[in-house]
## 1
Amino acid sequence: MKRSLLLLLLTLLVAVIASLHLGVHVYGPATVWSTFASGGDSMHDIIIRTLRLPRTLNAVLTGAALSLSGLFMQAVTRNPLAEPGLLGVNAGAAFAVAGGLALFGALSITSIGVLAIAGALAAAALVFGLSGALGPETGPTGILLVGVTVAAMLAALTQLILLLDETALETLLFWLSGGFADRPLPLLWIGGGALLIAVAGAAFLAPSIDALRLDDHSASGIGVNVVRTRLVALTLAAVLSAGAVAMSGPVTFIGLIAPHIARRLTAKRPGFAALAVLTMLTGAIIAVFADILARLIVAPGEAPIGAVLAFVGVPFLIHLLRAKRLREVGV
């Protein structure tokens, strides 16, 4: 555990340093150091301090938030495929922001955050309510199918709003594509606040979530309120996803990939609290490296962050589905 933690911290440090150096213009260590040491106002100082540093911080916070959100969902649903993007939470937050902009015009930063959180919570309630109504006979992938359906419906409604409202289209088109660049810095306070609340919640819920590794009856037998634990955990997952959407727009696959990678970094099966720390660091690393690739692979342009993550996320999802199928047939 300690070795994995140290490895992830060092990797994240390398990723952050690389993010400050790499881009359309590659700067040497001396240039980056002088930017922060002297506080100058030359072109490279402006690029590093006002463009690359904020987007790097955005990537770290978004990656940590989405990965912890995915871990919450996977743990309390016992579904390794659970992820905020695949379960419609991101789409719900985006739909709420687009609808609010179309109805009320210009939105403040606080309003964007509130609408994103409300939309994420509503989408989460809808997905888990529908999957619960279908009953356990739908199997462990039932919630995923419901989530994908709800996400597709909300995405279609969001596109309809943007087609009917040109102002909303111009304002939100770049934001809805997902990314860490050119985002208002105050939004980081919203995402950072959601992350702090969720980390505190993870520490508080960790013993109960560890008990959910048993079946519900056994967990209830040792004093765990299963329904309340699931409700609180899923609410925290939705708040995390909403904060991430407010900062960076809809970003998928990090919440799916990071928890699985974190689990494989330790030989022993860690408790939820320790796994949450490893997962957040893993998600932050994935987000920062994905952001670096987005700048470089089509330079001097910039690739959508969603496309970069899909190159890893889609094969990873297929691998998980195939592995799960093989386990079910006993291969």
## 2
Amino acid sequence: MSTDDKKTGRARGEEWWTTKIIEMKPGMIRLRGYAIEELIGRVSFPAMIWLMLRGELPSEEQADLLGIALSAAVDHGPQAPSIAIARMAMTCGVGINSAMASAVNVLGDVHGGAGEQALAFFGDIAAAMDAGHALEAAAAARLDRFFAEAEGYVPGLGHRFHPVDPRAPRLLAVTRDFAGRGVVPGRFADIAEAVEAGVERRKGKKIPLNIDGATAVIYGELGFPPPLTRGLFVLSRSVGILAHAWEQSQQGERNKGPLPREWLWAYAGEPARDLPKAEDE
């Protein structure tokens, strides 16, 4: 029998949800050991995200870079499924929280999860470099394995709407600036550029870094593990989801579907047919 199994009563209850994140009693709230009243007004929202996820406060410059990445991915318009879903949900009479939840629930591997995939991909290259391989060789080996095992797009590259994602070059330049000041190593920026160059050599054309790849670079530089990249994207895109849900709620439309009502879907089923008559008809 374990020690936990032997505990009963209040001791068992208090340890049921053991956490290192928050301590709370009547009149007292501490986050990672810091009194909330000392954090309020002195710690920015990006710094609070860092503290909650990592357990320690970041430097001001680390928090600034995290905030830059979060700000870059807040919205991509109503053509993005998550935004469209939030707007449609609001026309159905649900609360703004339900609209946001509906939108967040579709941020999966295809829509919203590519940043996690990109950072995992870049992390494989970083691990090979740690094992003594040069950057170009490590990137080439990872790309060889990818194209041998998978079909589709290298995570973090290309965009179905933008020939060049306008956010990515700026984010990479900002990362280079922070690396030049010693805030981050600049290693993941190098890796992303090596991947981009490696794909261009194989494809014969440049497939530029996208928002997922660029933010993955920043989150990698700041030391976040790949799974948190998806959660950070959710935090970021929730801003746009909230803005669109609120805007839609002010427009007074009801039951708004994905297409104008005068446009119907393409039907590809059986032509019109009659139900066979029963024998007694």
## 3
Amino acid sequence: MNHPVPRLGRRSFVLGAAGAATLPLVTLPRFAHAAEFNYKYGSELPLTHPQVIRAKEACEAVRKDTGGRVDIEMFPAGALGSITDMISQVRSGALQMLNVATASLTTFDPKANLSIPYAFKDYAAVWAAMDGELGAYSRRVVSRFGIHVFDSMWDHGFRQMTTRTKAITSPEDLQGFKIRVALVPMYVSLFKALGAAPTAINFSELYTSLQTRVVDGQENSLALIDSARFYEVQQYVSVTNHIWEGYVTSVNDATWKRLPANLQDVVQQRFREATLRQRQDMAELSGTLQAQLQTKGMKFNNVEPAPFREVLSKAGFYKEWQQKFGPEVWTILEKYTGALT
């Protein structure tokens, strides 16, 4: 079934109430001395990405509402290393906080990310799952690896395919096609099953890899295609909506446990509010991003998903991942997606 690109409106990041409750200040006076808790917060996403913008606002709100006791400094655009490096850092405690796609955490356990290609029909199904039982299961999995995950997820959007030389209109167009994928086993498995030649490359190296033609295409959300300026090195956008991706705010578990409970409440609440606003940002952006990217030279085409899903089924893709997830998780997943196998 088709997953229409979310229709998002103007790029105004003015989002009135996100429906989140307000918390009282933990410490009313402002302190002149240094913060008691200083955290670095890494992200691979560009400075202008909606997630980074809203996360920075959350960091500022936390400092204000804790009276300066908690100071979180944002380091976007891979300033602290590749996502692989930063995951290692946050596990060891060298980095305190990290904005990360759940898919990037599947090197520990495939059940860290439970978003399956061509599974969710729309955003109502996505948020029911991710704010519900499916998201809670994923967080429990990640917590076993020394990482505390906040319970509200950032929207990275449905992923689309971009190419340099041709539009993707059917699975046949992917035969032998050199496409960059994230360092995520499911994404590599997906494109192998579709007959492509997937190459796993860190996001920090992606623009250069496209520019030098190490790969001829990539797949990401429209917001990232725009903010990462891929329109400079890619010509076609095929609206495939092949998978929805979410990011989470993660914290080194030992670091989180050292933070007093009242301060934990403030941090979690402010980031929960930020994620709700960012979801709304993405909803508003979707309606303008296609037109915006077209003015920058990109050509769009809509793609019927049924042939792609049929190829995946025949290749045994869904059965493979059903076995990797196990019957308990697959049952929970299909509560939100309907039958996949």
